[in-house]
Design goal:
Structural class: alpha/beta
Order of helices and strands: HEEHEEEEHEHEEHHEEEHEHH
Number of strands: 13
Radius of gyration: 20 Å
Largest sheet: 8 strands, parallel, barrel
Distance between the termini: 42 Å
Strand order of the largest sheet: 1-3-6-7-8-9-10-13
Strand content: 25-35%
Helix content: 25-40%
């Protein structure tokens, strides 16, 4: 065999090995439909319950509380804790989700990871939340705060091992350029992609032009990924003018198809943000069916 033919065969072997590695990695994620719940009271109306059934929702990522710096900036503290006025329908897994502000990761705080895990376990027990198998941490970490955040995640994992919980974290598009965090999988947040100050040029919630530069990083990112898409509306007052940001269905689907072209396994686990009757009614059933298509 000629040297040229050896080179071609070697290149193909590398390509096949790389694809198999990525596919095997993402295949660890179960095929499922999920939704975020981001209100301070777990209370579902009939439309929201019908949505869970209609689109075969398996998991609800439920924000339990935020972690923010105290007013004196001395230490992180819980804020806006959820109350449980309702329960999820049988068969739907709840995933306690904690949003922690980036400034809480500017330095390490001894015992923070244990406090958060203990608080989640206590809330589950107090509110009779059953069959929890995972928690998620949501943080818009930067290259500067990343080392502290990753160490924090490792500490979370140590405490979760005692109860056999998995750990996931959110991944923003800009974080795709960083090493993968020490978690079981990430949720790629495909929203809040633009600069809110440039709202007259592009939709700050989602615009394909803001996502496009990151598409080439998807296939190489060394962590199983679920994907979250926006279905919410953002209302702001800009210079005393009410401005409504809403993403057209066509834009969401355009981004989804482009991302899955680069990394087909992103279609395995789909999440929408977030569960609310107004958001459900904002889009046609065909749109949700296409968003959740595997």
């Amino acid at each position: 065999m000629s040297t040229q033919k050896y080179s071609i065969v070697f290149f193909l072997l590398i390509l096949i090995t790389g694809c198999n590695k990525q596919n095997t990695q993402d295949n660890n994620l179960e095929v499922c439909n999920s939704v975020y719940y981001w209100r301070t009271d777990l209370r579902l109306d009939s439309t929201e319950k019908a949505f869970l059934y209609q689109y075969h929702i398996n998991k609800v990522y439920c924000r339990y509380f935020d972690v923010v710096m105290t007013e004196d900036a001395k230490e992180p503290s819980p804020n806006a804790t959820i109350t449980f006025s309702d329960t999820l329908p049988d068969g739907i897994e709840i995933i306690p989700t904690i949003y922690i502000t980036e400034d809480c990761m500017h330095k390490s705080y001894k015992g923070l990871a244990k406090k958060i895990v203990d608080r989640i376990l206590q809330m589950n027990e107090t509110n009779d939340v059953k069959n929890v198998r995972e928690i998620q941490i949501d943080c818009d970490y930067t290259s500067k705060s990343r080392p502290t955040y990753y160490k924090f995640l490792e500490e979370i994992n140590v405490h979760l091992s005692a109860v056999h919980y998995k750990l996931s974290t959110t991944i923003r598009l800009h974080q795709l350029s960083m090493p993968a965090p020490p978690v079981d999988y990430g949720v790629l947040m495909v929203y809040n992609t633009g600069d809110p100050r440039k709202w007259e040029e592009r939709n700050p919630i989602l615009d394909y032009r803001d996502v496009y530069p990151y598409l080439s990083r998807l296939d190489k990112y060394a962590l199983p990924l679920a994907t979250a898409y926006p279905v919410y509306q953002w209302i702001r007052n800009i210079q005393n003018v009410r401005v409504e940001h809403t993403v057209e269905a066509e834009e969401i689907l355009k981004v989804k198809h482009a991302m899955e072209k680069e990394r087909p396994s992103l279609s395995r686990s789909i999440i929408t943000y977030h569960l609310e009757t107004d958001n459900i009614n904002r889009y046609k059933p065909e749109t949700y069916e296409e968003i959740y298509r595997h």
